[in-house]
Design goal:
The longest helix is centred in the first third of the chain and has 31 residues. It is built from 20 helices and 25 strands. A hairpin with a 2-residue loop joins β6 and β7. It has five domains: about 150 residues; about 100 residues, no CATH class; about 150 residues, Flavodoxin domain (Rossmann fold); about 100 residues, Translation factors (Elongation Factor Tu (Ef-tu), domain 3), CATH 2.40.30.10; about 140 residues, Rossmann fold (3-Layer(aba) Sandwich). The chain is of the alpha/beta class. α1 crosses α5 and α4 packs across α5. The protein is elongated. The strands form four sheets. The chain has an eight-stranded antiparallel beta sheet with strand order 4-3-2-1-5-6-7-8. Bound molecules: flavin mononucleotide. Flavin mononucleotide binds next to α10 and β12. Keywords: Flavoprotein, FMN, Membrane, Transmembrane, Transmembrane helix. This is Oxidoreductase. It comes from Alcaligenes ammonioxydans. Pfam families: FAD_binding_6, Flavodoxin_1, NAD_binding_1, PepSY_TM. InterPro entries: Cbr1-like_FAD-bd_dom, FAD-bd_FR_type, Flavodoxin/NO_synth, OxRdtase_FAD/NAD-bd, PepSY-ass_TM.
């Protein structure tokens, strides 16, 4: 909880300044890449004396030689009253060209280091680096909680687009950002002299004139003993100052030598602090390690993305957290609602329940689950709990189970309502754990545990009806999902199917609307608002992606339903209100792995969409069960065409109501166990779409196949290779 608070507020406050560091850091990280291209190779055992000899030959006025971390040798000279800096080739001392420290204007570096404000700016930059370090550490802790520990860290990321972007880039980059911030802090500490890098005083040394001319470099002991490769900086003695000395700086230390007698006058080894500084500089700038500079560049460039997606996440969570009206004090309430939510959507359901119970005359207190306490006045307790990671609670409710365990049961009756997603191996795992723990401790159930899939308003309404029965009074639940912006879709064409059991179906193709419609792919959901029911959308799996240029769904007529009869009544040219709801758990990644698609009835729609979009001819195998090939073989003609075009490698159909039709789709899976096993061994992905009973039977068959391989369906899910979309 505390980490979430710190991460959120620090991100919001320090984020804007971090943005400046991120953008300038991205630009600065390009320098090491340019330098790496310019560096000429150095022989590994070239004596420093030889290098100096070569350089003196080509740059007679040389005063200082610098060996940059990138490998470039730069010679600073003063010739004809003009200071110059040139790059030289260590192989022969030849001048390669003028040296320019950076192509960027100097103010970019100053902006990065000081926000263009000297010391106050330097202090601000150091504070922002500290904030970034805390943000990285808190981000990592939140990530670990969210993904269910280190093991889950590499797992598939789900959630809204900003959440996925934030988490995906976060898990790659958080360590680099932490390192960049820590190294920046170390360098700032040395700038403010909180760390002493080397002794303040230099040794009192001077050359002793012998009456002879100065010795050539190859007679200077220090230059002979050092390798050019280890050089950081060399100052040559000034010709008109007989007391001046040679001065050499390397990573190991610095030394002074007499220009007339050649002997070493003093040697000071580098301090530990200096060596650490050198490392910090390398890790922070990437100078001398171009591959690292690439990572630095990418991680700095990701800061604006973090900032923006973090801001969106904060805004979304804020918007979805209701402002509860008339929250009774805890001790006076007869009904308590406890909420465990990460993304905020569960709060919307809690608000609906809160309002309904209030309308029924109850005294209601609604709060977060970590505040669990049930005073004696409470008669009914409701826990609305979402699940994250591998069946884990949302971050703020980590200690809820412990807290619940610490209080003995009262006379209150408790109902647990789980919120989750069936795509995850542990569907509503946290709600299950809560239910189990409460019952074990002797809390009385108000009603059995219910689990809501993908925030379904319909399932919530069903739970509300069950609650009405238990309370003996209608519970006026008015849940209003926050609906995205609607687009008006015009029907282009329809393909009607009579259906096998008096249940006709239709494939509806709509034109892409003029208003912007969110990006979508086959497998995402189209939310439709039937007229007269403006708050509860119905969702249909999309059989097309945006690139197809139309929006296509397959709808079976449900008698007594609201939305499907409405959709069936549409004529060409009619319009309907709709929006896209991403279904990230049911996408296909862009790899070349084979794909086994298994579907029945109208569940074939998203699978047909995957096949339609398979222009790269990835091996796809479809197992498709319907009842009658003449009455409900949806996409039948298209599937055959796609097979001819190479989009679909194999089509296996079963028609359950036809003699010799092959039974159900699971029978086809069973018959083809050998082939499916081979595909799974090759890393195949599996996507299943259709009814729950069908999926159950298919899963049994898949589990048997996987068991022969020493694996399980849970293993396939954990590896992101199995996903289902069921209704
Ligand atoms: C990263 C992530 C992990 C999730 N893990 C699970 C899980 O293990 N089991 C499950 O049933 N649902 C899981 N879900 C689905 C959420 O529990 C579900 O969307 C819930 O309605 C979110 O409620 P909230 O917005 O109040 O946090 C996960 C969702 C995300 C984004």
């Amino acid at each position: 909880m505390i980490w979430r608070f710190v991460h959120r507020w620090l991100g919001l406050v320090a984020g804007t300044l971090a943005l400046v560091l991120g953008i300038t850091g991205t630009m600065l990280a390009l320098d090491p890449l340019r330098n790496a291209v310019q560096a000429a190779p150095t022989e590994s055992d070239l004596p420093l004396a030889t290098l100096v000899e070569r350089i003196k030959g080509t740059v007679p006025g040389a005063e200082e030689i610098r060996h940059l971390p990138s490998g470039i040798f730069v010679v600073y000279a003063f010739e004809d009253g003009q200071a110059q800096a040139v790059r030289v080739d260590p192989a022969d001392g030849k001048i390669l060209g003028d040296y320019q420290a950076s192509l960027l204007p100097r103010w970019v570096k100053n902006l990065h280091r000081t926000f263009l404000m000297d010391d106050p700016g330097r202090i601000t930059a150091a504070m922002v680096a500290l904030a970034m370090l805390v943000l990285s550490v808190s981000g990592l802790l939140l990530l670990l909680r969210r993904m269910g520990g280190w093991r889950g860290l590499a797992g598939p990321v789900r959630g809204t687009l900003p959440q996925r972007l934030h988490v995906l880039s976060g898990r790659v980059i958080v360590l680099i950002l932490a390192l960049s911030s820590a190294t920046a802090l170390y360098m700032s500490a040395s700038t403010f002299e909180l760390i002493t890098l080397s002794p303040d005083t230099e040794p009192e040394v001077s050359s002793q004139a012998t009456g002879q001319p100065p010795l050539p470099p190859d007679q200077i002991e220090l230059l002979r003993s050092l390798r050019a490769q280890d050089l950081e900086r060399l100052n040559l003695p000034t010709p008109d100052d007989p007391q001046d000395t040679w001065r050499v700086v390397t990573a190991q230390g610095q030394g002074w030598a007499d220009q007339y007698r050649g002997q070493t006058l003093a040697w000071e080894a580098s301090t530990q602090a200096q060596r650490l500084y050198d490392w910090a500089l390398l890790l922070h700038t990437g100078e001398g390690a171009w591959l690292w500079a690439v990572f630095l560049c990418l991680s700095a460039a990701s800061i604006p993305l973090f900032w923006y997606t973090g801001l969106l996440m904060w805004w979304q969570a804020r918007r979805s957290r209701p402002r509860l009206k008339g929250n009774s004090p805890l001790t006076q309430a007869d009904s308590l609602i406890f909420v465990a939510s990460e993304g905020g959507s569960t709060w919307g359901f809690a608000q609906a329940l809160h309002d309904a119970l209030k309308a029924m005359g109850r005294q209601v207190h609604t709060t977060s689950l970590e505040n669990w306490r049930v005073p004696p006045a409470a008669r009914h307790v409701y826990i609305l709990a979402a699940t994250y990671g591998e069946g884990q609670p949302p971050a703020h409710a980590q200690k809820a189970l412990k807290r619940i365990a610490s209080q003995p049961p009262t006379d209150a009756q408790v109902a647990v309502l789980g919120f989750g997603d069936r795509q995850f191996p542990d569907f509503c795992g946290f709600a299950n754990a809560l239910e189990h723990s409460l019952r074990e401790r002797g809390w009385q159930p108000l009603m059995a545990l219910e689990r809501i899939h993908q925030q379904s308003p319909q399932e919530f309404a069903r739970w509300g009806r069950a609650l009405s029965d238990v309370l003996g009074q209608p519970v006026p639940l008015a849940y209003q999902p926050r609906l995205p912006r609607m687009a008006s879709l015009t029907l282009l064409s329809r393909q009607d199917f009579p259906g096998a059991a008096g249940q006709p179906a239709v494939i509806l193709r709509f034109a892409l609307p003029d208003q912007p419609l969110a990006r979508f792919a086959a497998g995402d959901l189209l939310g439709i608002l039937p007229p007269g029911e403006q708050s509860v959308p119905r969702y249909y799996s999309l059989a097309s992606g945006k690139q197809d240029g139309f929006v296509e769904i397959c709808v079976r007529h449900t008698s007594g339903g609201v939305c499907s009869p409405y959709l069936h009544s549409l004529h060409i040219g009619d319009t309907t209100q709709a929006f896209i709801r991403p279904n990230p758990g049911f996408t296909l990644t862009g790899s070349r792995r084979p794909v086994v698609l298994i579907g029945a009835g109208t569940g074939v729609a998203p699978l047909a969409g995957f096949i339609r979009d398979n222009t790269r001819h990835r091996p796809m195998y479809l197992y498709y069960g319907t009842r009658d090939c003449k009455r409900d073989f949806y996409f039948g003609k298209e599937l055959k065409d796609w097979q001819t075009q190479g989009h679909l490698r194999e089509l296996h159909t079963t028609f359950s109501r036809m003699p010799d039709g092959g039974g159900y789709v699971q029978n086809a899976v069973q018959r083809d166990a050998q082939q499916i096993r081979t595909l799974l061994e090759k890393g195949a992905l599996v996507r299943v779409c259709g009814s729950r009973p069908m999926a159950q039977a298919v899963k049994q068959e898949l589990d048997t196949i996987l068991m022969d391989m020493g694996k399980s369906l849970a293993w396939l899910k954990e590896n992101g290779r199995y996903a289902e979309d069921l209704f």
